[in-house]
Specification:
heterodimer, A: mainly beta, four-stranded antiparallel beta sheet, 11 strands, 0% helix, B: mainly beta
Chain lengths: 115, 108
């Protein structure tokens, strides 16, 4: 399975600012995913990021708020823009491995606090 | 919509087997059944997945009902390190959609 390095592991940010989260994978993967986990909740899919195409966002998430880059098959970034305290969450990236018989690996997450 | 049903919580004694149930009555013929767990302050961790046949790996076993409408994750000997939230997910060629999962507590 793939190994993911996610940075930063945590940050405290001022409202109105932006934070870019990086996800580096140790092997080439086609599909990468970004999730949000609000306090005490389960994971919610934000978007799917495939290299060479625009990210596909889930209902309730928009590109202006969560722009995503996927410059190559081992790297992706998620930016949380114009942050408010409601954006305080854990953000996780994930990749699929194993070809059509998918398993998934997750990063350790970025714990974001907006003050 | 996670499309799976799991108990909110379960409790087990250390070194006892644990059977975590999951109902997925509307599963399609091509959906795999995945299990992930999330330990405190960590990202989800892959446990096991399967399609029709029972599956075994070093972490657990997955027993899938013949009609595929339910499955059971089996931890053969629970340890304190197995205390986590366990997610049962049906997945095809799409991203994983998480439900609330089962919070497993392990008692020493």
């Amino acid at each position: 399975s793939a190994v993911i390095s996610q940075k930063p592991s945590r940050d405290i940010c001022q409202r109105g600012t932006s934070l870019t989260i990086q996800c580096q994978v140790d092997s080439q993967v086609t599909m990468m995913f970004w999730y949000r986990q609000q306090p005490g909740q389960s994971l919610t899919l934000i978007a799917t990021a495939n290299q060479g195409s625009e990210a596909t966002y889930e209902s309730g998430f928009v590109i202006d708020k969560f722009p995503i880059s996927r410059p190559n098959l081992t790297f992706s970034t998620l930016t949380v823009s114009n942050m408010s305290p409601e954006d305080s969450s854990i953000y996780l990236c994930s990749v699929a491995w194993g070809g059509t018989n998918y398993g998934y690996t997750f990063g350790s997450g970025t714990r974001l606090t907006v003050v | 919509d996670a499309k799976t049903t799991q108990p909110n919580s379960m409790e087990s004694n250390e070194e006892e087997p644990v059977h975590l149930p999951c109902n997925h009555s509307t599963i399609s013929g091509t959906d795999y059944i995945h299990w992930y767990r999330q330990l405190p302050s960590q990202g989800p961790e892959y446990v096991i997945h399967g399609l029709t046949s029972n599956v075994n790996n070093r972490m657990a076993s997955l027993a899938i009902a013949e009609d595929r409408k339910s499955s059971t994750l089996i931890l053969h000997r629970a340890t304190l390190r197995d205390a986590a939230v366990y997610y049962c997910i049906r997945a095809g060629n799409t991203p994983l959609v998480f439900g609330k999962g089962t919070r497993l507590s392990v008692i020493a």
